[in-house]
């Protein structure tokens, strides 16, 4: 993953000890952003080791399957008491490109630190009540006590990165546009509205190697769920892109690659993280305010999610803004072009086959005012509504398959299969009192609050723990 990152590196030994070595990889590539310094939170690695450490002899690395900015990725087999399972293994890079042994060891040391930082984010995400999220890559273990074997083990996604999958589908002409022009009504309609059997055969289309508009929206919905989960856990990804999303054979997505992710302060809606000077960040995905200030927040993640949705519907054929930059006549470096392009109100161009609901959503995600951008919860509502129109069977069937396993990390939101138009969200909680007020009819607003409270209570009972479940996100 992270194929764009620069391979150049240097390290200033005079930097203060508290600064994270992961953040000291400088940039020679003009498409990446330098940020001002900031002290990073210290994690309890001893507690992480106690929970996730595995014996090196239990792991057999089979072959390399990818290369990241900080690491190499392999597929391996993990021996367990009753069986062996395939795992993805992230290790330090085998070839550092160093000129001598001292430089090589310094690079490897910083790569191990990067893996430790990613391990800490994984551990934090899996500390949630639900133990993680179905659309976030699952940590299985780590080897941290042997320096030469330092690695992270995660679940293995057999279909690889989403960008490669989409590019292959586009190249092979395997995209099925479900929006068709109806001359009778003189407008575009969903095939599902003209063919009563269309929604029932979505799995058959997948089996025949096709990807449809509904599949792209299903991908977008899963990524939105994962990003909402990260936001609820006060984590900003900072590198969300289709290249950092993995695919399972059942079309389940896993948001991955947390090397640049950071944890925000708890319970502060105005929290932001300011990256270290020298951090390589993918500026094609970064919100304008973060480009200028180097500060990242949940609202800047909304912008980045919009770019990811754009990637889905363009099948990752081009990097964001590549077409616009190629047409630009002035001799500017990419960063200067992008800052000028966005400040002038220009945005990424969209293909004609993007549904109008998605176009409208993207225009809101790319608003200059961060406070006006829709949250991940609202993104889910909008995408789900469009998917209900195009192929509702995807939602209903996926819900059934995930609920079939009591061990699933997935907490499916029942709203994802509601066929009624979504109601306006009301974040006001109904106040409860033990004293009896004068008799009156409850308002619709209070009724929605009571319904929500009852659903949450039933979920707690069905969980059998008496504790609240992590919100389905």
From TrEMBL:
UniProt xrefs under Gene3D superfamilies: Phosphorylase Kinase, domain 1, Transferase(Phosphotransferase) domain 1
Catalytic activity reported: L-tyrosyl-[protein] + ATP = O-phospho-L-tyrosyl-[protein] + ADP + H(+)
Record's subcellular location: Membrane
Principal localisation: membrane
MF term (GO), any: ATP binding
InterPro entries listed in its UniProt record: Kinase-like_dom_sf (IPR011009), Prot_kinase_dom (IPR000719), Protein_kinase_ATP_BS (IPR017441), RTK (IPR050122), Ser-Thr/Tyr_kinase_cat_dom (IPR001245), Tyr_kinase_AS (IPR008266), Tyr_kinase_cat_dom (IPR020635)
Pfam families assigned to the protein according to its UniProt record, in alphabetical order: PK_Tyr_Ser-Thr
Topology of the protein relative to the lipid bilayer: Single-pass membrane protein
Record's keyword terms, sorted: ATP-binding, Nucleotide-binding
Residues covered by the Protein kinase domain: 59-388
GO annotation, cellular component aspect: plasma membrane; receptor complex
GO terms (BP aspect): cell surface receptor protein tyrosine kinase signaling pathway
CDD domains referenced in this protein's UniProt entry, alphabetically: PTKc
SUPFAM superfamilies linked to this entry: Protein kinase-like (PK-like)
Highest rank taxon of the organism: Eukaryota
SMART domains: TyrKc
Binding site for ATP: 90
Protein known as: Protein kinase domain-containing protein
Protein source organism: Plectus sambesii
Lineage of origin: Eukaryota, Metazoa, Ecdysozoa, Nematoda, Chromadorea
